[in-house]
Amino acid sequence: MADEDTKLPIKMLNDRLLVHIPDKDSERRTMGGILIPATAQLAKRLVWAEVVALGQNVRSAEVGDRVLFSPDDRYEVEVGGKDYIMLRERDLHAVAASRNESSTGLYI
User: Residue 33: CB partners within 8 Å, gap ≥ 6?
Assistant: First the structure.
């Protein structure tokens, strides 16, 4: 029954991925403990997000993987009252998954 509750009411097409940025990533702390709010303007910074759904033509990621992408390449969408981000597979910069064989757990 848990699978039925987590299933999204949409079907992703082609090379599209639906990702969710964890709430804890909105604010960051420096090594010295200074809180940097999500609205602070910094240099271009890539963002990590978790894949929640993907289209049939996506080959480099699976549901549950963490992907790295540029915030400039995103489209925000609301599904079932929750905010998600829609990406194209070509907009991914890296994928972190436990199934990867390299020691870093990343592939680019």
Answer: none
d(CA 52, CA 17): 8
**What whole-number distance in Å separates Cα of residue 42 and Cα of residue 32?**
18
- Hey, what are 96's tokens? 């972190």
Given pLDDT bands bounded at 50, 70 and 90, which one contains residue 58? very high
CA 94 – CA 80 distance, rounded (Å): 28
How many domains does the chain contain in total? 1
Residue 60 sits in a domain of what CATH number?
Answer: 2.30.33.40
User: For residue 91, which of 64, 107, 68 has the smallest C-alpha distance?
Assistant: 68
State the residue range of the domain holding 91: 2-107
Q: What is the pTM of this model?
A: 0.70
Taking Cα atoms as reference points, which of 44, 36, 50 lies closest to residue 73? Answer: 44
